[in-house]
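Teaching soon. Invent one.


***
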Amino acid sequence: MEESYRAAVLRDTTQNIRSYSFELKYLISAHAAAFQDTFQSLITFSQNHLTSLFETTYSSLMSSISPHIACLFTDLSRFLQGTGNISVEAAVHCFFDSLFPLVHTRIVNPGIAGSIGEDSYNGNQLGDCLRMTRQDVNPFGPHPKAMADTLASALRAGRVLSLTLGVGLEVMNVTETAELSKECTRALVRMHYCSHCRGLTLIRACSGYCLNVMRGCLASLSELHNPWRQYVTVLQDLTHIVAGAHNLELALLGIRGQVEEAILYAQLHGPRLTATVDKVCGHSSNVSSTTVRTFPPTSVTPPPANSSPDVPGADKIGMLAHLYREFTGYISRYKSFFSILPETLCEGEMGIDELTCWSGDDVVKSYTARVVGNGVHAQRQNPEVRVRSADPVLMDVKNRLELFNMEIQEVMPGVGHRESWDERGSGESSGECDDEDGCEGSGESVVSPPLTEADVSKNAVKVSFHDSPITENKSSSDASLSMTSFIIIILALVLHWPFI
């Protein structure tokens, strides 16, 4: 009978722990998939957006540049997924290296391609020279570097966010399968089933008694509280960097504009560019500089999603901001998951308005023994469960999570240095302000840089005292109104004093 009770209590307790952790695990896994799906949809949309530039404006380059466009976005996609040793800067510069021979021979000097062969730039001496010297010649001005820097910053945050979400799933997979000790099992049997020997099958355990048992059983699990709390803060900060100001979207959707500006720059500086190429590559152009076509620079902005409903990925524009608010609102509720798990389990066991309870030995009105806190160290005073040492598996998880948090803070300075975006724990809003809340100009196309420690501190103050400016302005307004009224009354008395 005792073995049956032991098997039953192990099964039920493990199932309860998994049922409470399932919501958290699903929250992380579902949003990890949603973020990755949105990333890939934005990649697809941005690729089509850039392709349309060459189809409509630079059709003579389309057939030759198409493979290089595909190569660029394949590298960006692999980087976001964390597969392969990909450099965003190298991918961008490789694209512009391949673009330079096409622009020089077909747009800046369109007669060259006809004189040396339509496709000979791929293997001839001039084409190789143009590719190798592109960064030295600098035909596209500041645009390649600006595009590379913007994409590297935004995509690095997206890559780290995906990696961080994966680490959270690994932690949950290990913790939900952690084994309960023999001392814990013995205490659980005593709490749940020893009352049955007296025929008391419906009586509930005293709340303090249950807490002592559960905190003893989950002592090692509670040790994850601090690193997990820090991990959740890291998640909140990373999602803010990726989506809080639409950084990743603006970076990807701005590729077309950067490429067009780069080509226009080469056209506007055609004579100087041709002269430089002749000196560097030793090829004398037989085309007069008067054939150079110039166009006024234009500001290209990506079309809104609703204007291109049939374009793959268009429906994902604006989705990152929604995911950001939803995810940060939900994940903040689980910051103390591992420390409140014993209380959560006990709440499920407690009855309502019961005058008596089970203390492990007898039926009592209240539990009189000392109720200990969380963690392995606190269990030294636990009267119900003897905790000999910490679970080595869970301690390894703790150490790995602490190390991961430190590495993320080194890679992404300013991340994870505050408790949360909104300690009040609002459900649907993180307390931050973005474009859709009307706090920033929606027409801005500048990508915000990664957060610094100063930015973090400033934003933390903004959130913590979110209501203060409203109260302060109201009180200032009331004070000004009162002072104005007082002055008017004094002036009226002075003016009417002779008549009085």
